[in-house]
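ok so I'm stuck.
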Amino acid sequence: MKFPRKACAGLKGCALGVLVCSLVMTCSPLLVHADDISDLENKASSLNSQLSGINQEMVKISDEITSAKNQIEIINGEILRTQDSLADAQADEAERYQAMKSRIKYMYEVGNESLLEMLFSAESMTDFLNKAEFIENISSYDRDMLDRLHTIREEIAEREQVLLDQQASLISLQDRLEQRRVELNATAKATSTDLATFNMQLAALRQEEARRAEEARKAEEAKKNEQKPGTVPTVPAVSEEVKPGEDKKPEEEKKPDEGTLEDTVVNGGSANVSAGELDIFAAILECEAMQEHDSLLAVATVIMNRMSSSLFPNTIKDIVYAEGQFEPVWTGRLDTVLSRGPSDLSYQVAQEALNGARLPSVADCYYFLYAGATNRPGVNVGNNLFFQSW
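replied:
not stuck anymore, here's the structure
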């Protein structure tokens, strides 16, 4: 039976409509899943970036905490050194005061006649004035020495207070950094948990998307086989390179050999520096060591060792002024010595070190602390304890 042409056209239109509806129904879930996957990927990427930033900040804070702890240890040593110096100055002042009182007592009790005899024995007015000035100088000397000792004691006490203030400031900074590290740890933990959740959801969606895509492909393949009678449906091989629902993992990046930093101690190595750097070198030696040759040379050896090592700056100025390394820089003592000028012995030892002189007992040392403030193993030279690593 033949259908009219209009009826045939109507049937074709209905078939086309059914096919379009079928495709829309099939593709709609895939579009929804694609939007969900994109959203989760964006969230995971954002959390990854946050976690990376948190890790970088934690590394920075850990470095700052380590630096603060080192500075606190240095300051604790200097506080103890200052307290010992203050005790010595107070004892010296008390001893000189007692000596002065004894002399004054002697002069009042039995000394007046002797002094008068010395004055009246003068052979001329000039001799009389000289002897009177001598007597006056005895008393002036005592007063001047007491005034000087009192000034030294006040200066040491002021220095101790500066160190105590810096110690309190560093401890406060360390506490704040520790608190910040705790907060970052909590944030990192929460971020990692969210990231793990998103990754699980993302993996589930990708598996579902792959399953639906596979079902659609099989349906399409079956439909084609039905349209070709006599053909045997073929089962496509699944590639082993990328399985459905899995991402191909990139090859692991080959890490370069990290290697090790080797400290190089150059015994006898010489160096040329400017006059300004020589001043700084001599001044820091005077601040950090007793005015005794080996004590000064021991500190100079540490500075020259640092200058030869890739772990430290390569100039005297940069080594001395490096953050958190030398207490006299923080407290202003270095500027004071530079203003009045270092001693001749400090200059002499600084120049010897630049010419290649090293103290053998500390030739492999890069650090030192006041010996009275630490129980570290090391070499004691001039009440400074020298050691290789922090």
